[in-house]
């Protein structure tokens, strides 16, 4: 299953959905955070909020996604925002085939130059599917994993309190940080040397000020 988190980027979302329908038969599910257009025009299964909750309520969007995944019969899951372009699902499937040994795993979709984040962990170089990667101690909010990884989370993101942003309103949503801390030491987490999708230096809907300072640009 491929889960796409979306907000007010109909052009990008249309392109993503078309690309995925043309290149894979995976189930698609869009979690939309109150866009001002009708999601039904995309002919895909979706959940759409009445209004935008923003980064302070992004954890709720994840719980919608995880609940949908839990009720599905899928065993592997890809989570991506709506500005990750040209997702290479065939290559992901090859990595899944090599990693699927009954243990939980998680692979970040994008390599933006970071190999350490959220907590101390020395990255270790590895080979997966004859490709270079690093075993790391963190995940961002775009990744693929198996159901065992989500089971360790009890298919749930714990509520992120609003006081997180009291002293610094520019902080991120906290979802990636929570995922990383809860899965650290329990799940093998990786960053590929070559990204599975493309992300350029464009405006962020959720973290505009932070992305202006530290752009998220995928490595290929």
Could you please describe the fold and organization of this structure?
It is a single chain. The relative contact order is 0.18. α1 links the parallel β1 and β2. The model has no long low-confidence stretch (mean pLDDT 92). The protein has a nine-stranded mixed sheet with strand order 3-2-1-4-8-5-9-7-6, sandwiched between helices. Helices cover 27% and strands 20% of the residues. It has one domain: Spore Coat Polysaccharide Biosynthesis Protein SpsA, Chain A (Alpha-Beta Complex). The chain is of the alpha/beta class and 220 residues long.
Tag the structure with descriptive keywords.
alpha/beta, Spore Coat Polysaccharide Biosynthesis Protein SpsA, Chain A, nine-stranded mixed β-sheet, 6 helices, 9 strands
Quick summary:
The chain is α/β, with parallel strands linked by helices. The chain has one domain: Spore Coat Polysaccharide Biosynthesis Protein SpsA, Chain A (Alpha-Beta Complex). It is 27% helix and 20% strand.
Count of helices?
A: 6
Largest beta-sheet characterization: 9 strands, mixed
Number of domains: 1
Give the CATH superfamily.
Answer: Spore Coat Polysaccharide Biosynthesis Protein SpsA, Chain A
Order of helices and strands: EHEEHEHEEEEHHEH
CATH class: Alpha Beta
First CA to last CA: what distance?
24 Å
Question: What is the rounded Rg?
Answer: 16 Å
Task: Assign the CATH topology.
Answer: Spore Coat Polysaccharide Biosynthesis Protein SpsA, Chain A
Strand order of the biggest β-sheet? 3-2-1-4-8-5-9-7-6
């Amino acid at each position: 299953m491929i889960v796409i988190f979306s907000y007010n980027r109909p052009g990008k979302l249309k392109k993503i959905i078309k690309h995925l329908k043309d290149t894979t038969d995976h189930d698609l599910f869009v979690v939309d955070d109150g866009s001002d257009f009708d999601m039904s025009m995309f002919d895909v299964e979706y959940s759409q909020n009445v209004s935008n909750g923003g980064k302070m309520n992004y954890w709720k969007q994840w719980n919608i996604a995880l609940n949908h995944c839990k009720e599905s019969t899928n065993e592997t899951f890809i989570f991506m925002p709506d500005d990750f372009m040209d997702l290479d699902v065939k290559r992901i499937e090859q990595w899944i085939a090599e990693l699927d040994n009954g243990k939980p795993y998680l692979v970040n979709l994008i390599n933006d130059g970071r190999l350490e984040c959220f907590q101390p962990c020395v990255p270790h170089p590895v080979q997966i599917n004859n490709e270079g990667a690093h075993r790391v101690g963190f995940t961002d909010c775009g990744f693929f994993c198996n159901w065992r990884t989500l089971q360790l989370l009890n298919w749930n993101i714990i509520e992120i309190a609003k006081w997180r942003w009291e002293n610094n309103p520019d902080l991120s949503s906290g979802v990636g940080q929570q995922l990383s801390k809860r899965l650290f030491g329990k799940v093998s987490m990786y960053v590929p040397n070559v990204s599975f999708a493309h992300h350029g230096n464009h405006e962020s809907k959720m973290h505009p000020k932070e992305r202006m300072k530290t752009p998220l640009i995928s490595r290929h």
